Amino acid sequence: xxxxxxxxxxxxxxxxxxxxxxxxxxxxxxxxxxxxxxxxxxxxxxxxxxxxxxxxxxxxxxxxxxxxxxxxxxxxxxxxxxxxxxxxxxxxxxxxxxxxxxxxxxxxxxxxxxxxxxxxxxxxxxxxxxxxxxxxxxxxxxxxxxxxxxxxxxxxxxxxxxxxxxxxxxxxxxxxxxxxxxxxxxxxxxxxxxxxxxxxxxxxxxxxxxxxxxxxxxxxxxxxxxxxxxxxxxxxxxxxxxxxxxxxxxxxxxxxxxxxxxxxxxxxxxxxxxxxxxxxxxxxxxxxxxxxxxxxxxxxxxxxxxxxxxxxxxxxxxxxxxxxxxxxxxxxxxxxxxxxxxxxxxxxxxxxxxxxxxxxxxxxxxxxxxxxxxxxxxxxxxxxxxxxxxxxxxxxxxxxxxxxxxxxxxxxxxxxxxxxxxxxxxxxxxxxxxxxxxxxxxxxxxxxxxxxxxxxxxxxxxxxxxxxxxxxxxxxxxxxxxxxxxxxxxxxxxxxxxxxxxxxxxxxxxxxxxxxxxxxxxxxxxxxxxxxxxxxxxxxxxxx
Length: 544
Description:
Elements: E1 8-9, E2 19-22, E3 25-28, E4 38-39, E5 49-52, E6 55-60, E7 75-76, E8 105-110, E9 116-117, E10 121-126, H1 132-142, E11 150-153, H2 155-166, H3 171-175, E12 183-186, E13 197-200, H4 211-225, E14 230-237, H5 245-255, E15 263-267, H6 268-271, H7 274-292, E16 298-301, E17 306-311, H8 322-335, E18 339-342, H9 352-357, H10 362-381, H11 392-396, H12 402-409, E19 418-423, E20 432-437, H13 442-451, E21 456-461, E22 474-478, H14 481-486, E23 493-494, H15 496-499, H16 505-520, H17 526-529
Parallel strand pairs: 10-13, 10-14, 14-15, 17-18, 17-21, 18-20, 19-20, 21-22, 22-23
Antiparallel strand pairs: 1-4, 2-3, 5-6, 6-7, 8-9, 8-16, 11-12
Helix pairs in contact: 1-7, 4-5, 8-16
């Protein structure tokens, strides 16, 4: 991956005794090397350092022979130390040629504050978990009759199994039966054709815990209410919780001092009965949808895009294909005046110095260093650490240390300067590359990026995940062709073409940007088709 690296990545399974050309000679594998895993191009001794992508990713703790396999048994997590003094020697980044994209536009929803949405949703939100049931009642009352019900039913398969049993079929015969495909149907046409949907968020916060939890939750919810993909919102409050209505309104004012959208807030303890609450919420939400439907898509420059960068279910190819291809998209969008968000701070472990050196000024570098160190110390304080970040799936597919995982994950951010460092759930206000402090957990991080203003999320995966978001399209990008072929219903773009030698990273990046423009103009991604609307607020604490 880099001239300073001292390990190789297997692009295919390499049985024992496989000759591997390397430099001017040949290496013979002394162990079976699964695809995506790392081969030792020379013998390692305990204490030797392992480098990938030009950074330290591990330290050897058991001897590894020439042609051997790097594993969690013989490698341990290790990273270089970093300081918060920005050398700022990386600011003269090679700006990509974006002349062919300069005049391109997408069809978006223009908001009064100057931002542009890639979708047009109405939100129904609880301020506290006590209102989750009422949110469910409203969803049941609204979704189907407004034409937003989209159901995939497996009930016919159950009926088929019942018929087989009643016909006297054995357990073995039933297990061998091929069932008919599930039925997918949209019950009615949309009553409001210019509204993409009504999204009903649920969460477990708003009361209990500490007051800072309530404040942070209100900040996140305010980020969604003021989001350019949102036309307005209905908010249900119980009345006695920590997350008070006034707290939410203060957070809205921070993000949008001239807040202009329709916003209906109902407090159950003031209104009284459930019927009175639900009836009022239905009337107000319906009126809000009538207003939202008056908005139309119009052309907007690509500088109005804010892209969230996310990865989940990563594998040993993620840092070679999908992530650098997304990194090229990041650089192109920055060159066009847009904004990108690189988050997941536990997955920036080991590349801190590079990001410090790319910071536009000393305060930016210092804030990043401070947030990273505080996050790392909080993990250690509860007996964990960034070294415990890789999941069993990551490890199985070649990411055996957190630094190895992080070095590949950071490539989503391209090479442009870091213009701002944000602490969750702050709002993106500057064009360019923004760093956002979030956990590495896929859904918590995606939820946070959208709350900070991402109107599209690029989500790379090597193992496959159906994750989506309530209001922002989440584009699934596979790192390998096998995944794209195995799970075509959840993958939008395949960059395994880079691994297969069919496409360069730059060509894959341009293909992704072209798709992003179509999605920003209303083309549905897989997660939207499946109704995948995951929403998990980060309760500040240790989450890797």
